[in-house]
Amino acid sequence: MDTDRNKELIRRWIAFANAGFAGSFDQFVASDYIGHMGAACLDRAELERLERQFGTAFPNVHHRIDDLIAEADRVVLRTTATATHQGEFEGIPPTGRTVEFTGLVLYRIADNKIAESWGEIDFLRLIRELRLP
To answer: Could you give the maximum distance between any two Cα atoms of the chain, in Å?
Structure first.
């Protein structure tokens, strides 16, 4: 396993996210991708739908890479994101608020693509920031 190559894939994935997911997911995510987010599982189509939906609600999102650790076919990312709420999100109309939230994602890489991921995103913090008086 080339851990440096796997880390570079995740760096490029985060740059793709920061650019609003403009373009195809093909170069990053395997067609048989499986995502685990809490108790939910999602396939690649659902991942793409959710990421693009999030990008519409928070078009200026910026994910900072706080830590990036790789071993064998796994890469762990700890990130802090900042964004401005400019579109509906989870039934909350645009507030114009700038928010910050954190995430921890473990990626499994196969054939130089993200094949599987396990994510813990602090959406509770995000929702609380959007609902502040």
So the answer is: 50
